[in-house]
Amino acid sequence: MSIPASFRRVLEAGDPNWKSGENPELVIVYGDHRRNFLECYTMNAIEEVDAKIDALPRGSMERKMLQRLFHGQSFPTNVDETGRLVLPAKLRQKIDLENEAFFIAAGDTFQIWKTETYDTVERAKEEEWLDDLPEDFDPMAFLDGPSGE
């Protein structure tokens, strides 16, 4: 699948080993059975997650589970010369991806969804969240912070 150019620039900027003319590396976290999307992390972003996991107490259940979710259920890869990402069959099957994919950016990560899944599952969550807000509420107000500053 072709990675949008803006996402490729983020992957390049987030790969400390990337040099012009080379292909940026990334890590795709596919997670447990409840996750119905793939999350692509820049190398810097996954290193930040790894550092936070490593800061948890050794032997703690949280550390063990996060190591399994992030290290044991991830796929290191890179963007190819044509700006494409080749997803193994296992990952395509995980999210039931056959044709078109939907990408959503989140800073130094982005998610890959089966378009129909995103449209039904995530849009329903968005609508439910919006329905709990007053009719005239502007979600941009959240950007001002809790004190309205």
UniProtKB/TrEMBL annotation:
Gene3D superfamilies assigned: Transcriptional regulator MraZ domain (3.40.1550.20)
Pfam families, per database record: MraZ
Annotated keywords: Cytoplasm, DNA-binding, Repeat, Transcription, Transcription regulation
Location(s), subcellular: Cytoplasm, Nucleoid
Domain of life assignment: Bacteria
Family annotation (InterPro entries): MraZ, MraZ_C, MraZ_dom, MraZ_N, MraZ_sf, SpoVT-AbrB_dom, SpoVT-AbrB_sf
Major localization listed first in the record, in broad terms: cytoplasm
UniProt domain SpoVT-AbrB: residue ranges: 74-117
UniProt entry tagged with the keyword ATP-binding: no
Protein family according to the UniProt entry: Belongs to the MraZ family.
Assembly and interaction partners: Forms oligomers.
Entry protein name: Transcriptional regulator MraZ
Organism: Sulfitobacter pacificus
